[in-house]
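User: For my dataset I need records formatted as: sequence, then structure tokens, nothing else. Please produce one.
Assistant:
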Amino acid sequence: MKNVVLLTVDTLRKDALGCYGGGKLTPFIDSIQKNCIRFTQAYSSGPYTRAAFPGILTSSYYLEFGLQKMLPRRRTLISEVLKSAGITTAGFHSNPHLSGYFGWNRGWEVFYDSMEEEVTDQIPYIEAQRINQKVAAWLSSQVGKGDDKPFFLWVHYMDIHEPYIPPRKYAEFVDPSLLLNEDEMFRLFKEVLLKRDVSHKETVALLKKLYQAHVRQIDEEVKNFFEILDTRRVLQETVVILTSDHGDEFGEHGGLSHDGKMYEELVHVPLLIFDPERNIGQVSDPLVSTLDIAPTVVSLFGLPSIETFSGKSILPLKPDSSRGIFGEALDKLGSNEQGAEKEVHFYRQENYKIIYREKDNSWELYDLSADPGETVKLNSTSAMAEEMKEKIRPRVRRYEKKM
């Protein structure tokens, strides 16, 4: 039985990766494609962390049990499933929304969430380099124990997340003329990004370059992470799943960062499954969801499926062109939810996606094959649109109906 690693990168857009057509920002990730299945139509269940991670780690939708900041016991974490099956579990991350305070530490034998560490306003998280160091120390303590227990390791990097203040060498890689100092970059965050000011295209483009510099930086850390696995003699016995919780917007639909929107730049995410025994890369085009990750991990360990999981294993590959994908969140603006926001939903089936905003009771229908940037709204009263609306309507405020 192989080990399984889930490597999640906060705020990583699918189109930032070279293997998805994003240029030369990610040479290492691109170099391992011969060992990967690359899913081209993977969708997050939400456009920001709190809406997305229930899908990734509990295979459940964000609003399934109502508006709860604490992780309810009715959500089963993948770590709980695996620990009860005798598999070693460990998690290392630095996202406050996923901390033990909110209940995300259930089922982990080792859980590092950095909440007792000192951070700065400029870099308000523990960086990937330090996360990797902690992973390396943990792996060293595991190797050679003699019990041959497989492990499940979850690692989450925050480095791409705003504020965008990349080290100079990565900024220069993206644009040699990008010579802003840390104070100037932080000022862009406070005066432009936080205010969602997209009035100056040049400034928005500058923010995106800083974001891309962080993508280049994280590719180096992913490379270092793989080297850690190799040095500790576990890489050849480990499947690595790499994905993101959501993307980031740079003015595509009138905003910045990752608010309560359901457009492609936020919810269409990368998903790669690395297997050292694979020597020919494979591309899978059917729709899949991040809710499928936990069931896939269960299947990789040869365990029976979990009844409470809403997703399904995507291994072995079984193309299903009729499948539809959902996402849901609160229609928030800014970094924190207030709890009174209206809901926002999307449903994707075949080439079409429909978005519902409860705030103004509006529908947007797009043909993604002809309009991948979602710039042309189709007739939302057509028979096809009405059929897709009926998929979403029962999901709006459904937790209130259960009370």
